[in-house]
Amino acid sequence: MPSIRSLRLITGAVAIGAALLAGPVVAQTTLENASAKYRQDLAEGNPADLWVARGQEMWTQPRGPKKVSFESCDLGQGPGVVKGAYATLPRYFPDAGRVMDLETRLVWCMVNQQGYTHAEATKLTFGNGSRHRSDLEALTAYVAKESDGVKMNVSLADPHVKEMYDIGKKAFFYHAGTHDFACATCHASDDLRIRLQYLPNLTKPAGAQKAYTTWPAYRVAQGETRSFQWRLHDCFRQQRFPDLIYGSDLSIALTTYLAASANGAVYVGPGIKL
């Protein structure tokens, strides 16, 4: 006998399928409502919580050749402090001499405090179904969860951060590749979508706020919790661009532009994406 929650998810999936068979105008409204209801039902037991729990456990474990925990890792609020940290990132870290997002900072702590090589720390940045789980995705989910209910507040007062923001904004509108795509191709207009996913207009505060504050997110289609670095990497893949290097300055610049554009919104992640 299926559980009540299972029946709700089946019903939601059927509603989404029915919407796709309707006329274009009816389908758009029906699909949007059905997708929102499906995510709401799934959120009652968000699978991302499993990644959060694993990340929380890893945070206090002595790790790496030096047997050091992440409790010595400073995310901008002081060593080991995670509450509210995600809502202020990216930011400039003097000890590293660069602007970093959460994932880049975690890698820095793994290398400089725990003793991993950079290759070891970034060997598995993204999970691969049930066979291989990424520690970085779990740690990112945990730290992000600790900002749940906190308003985004990425400061542009530091000139290093402002420079990254400006570069990220230019990169967002830069057309290139075999299809002459840009981030703005999909995310600078209203009412666009790809399959079941609506494409937020990231040039407007409301769109940027709604989108950024729900990453990291559990992807139903993949059975994985994904980070924002993954989101950017996958966008580059869909634009037919070369692979975006994990933690590169370009990835940090785009993240800074989008995170700062979400300032003032309450972080509500990890979210759920179909």
Structure, explained:
The chain is mainly alpha-helical and 274 residues long. Helices cover 46% and strands 8% of the residues. The chain is built from eleven helices and seven strands. The strands form three sheets. The protein has a three-stranded mixed beta sheet with strand order 6-5-7. Strand 3 (192-194) and strand 4 form a beta hairpin. Helix 1 (4-21) runs antiparallel to helix 2 (24-43) and helix 3 packs across helix 6 (135-145). The longest helix is centred in the N-terminal third of the chain and has 20 residues, at 24-43. It starts with a helix and ends with a strand. Mean pLDDT is 87; it is low at 1-20.
The SSE string, one letter per element, is HHHEEHHHHHEEHEEHHE
**C-alpha Rg (nearest Å):** 19 Å
CATH A-level architecture of the largest domain: Orthogonal Bundle
- The H-level CATH homologous superfamily of the largest domain, spelled out, is Cytochrome c-like domain
The parts where pLDDT drops under 50 for at least 5 residues are 1-20
Provide the number of structural domains: 2
**What is the helical fraction, as a range of percent?**
40-55%
Structural class: mainly alpha
What overall geometry do the principal axes of the alpha carbons give?
A: globular
Strand order of the largest sheet: 6-5-7
The number of helical elements comes to: 11
Per CATH, the class of the largest domain reads Mainly Alpha
Mean pLDDT: 87
* Overall strand count: 7
Termini Cα gap: 25 Å
The biggest beta sheet reads: 3 strands, mixed
- What portion of residues belong to β-strands? 5-15%
Q: Which fold name fills CATH's third level, the topology of the largest domain? A: Cytochrome Bc1 Complex, Chain D, domain 2
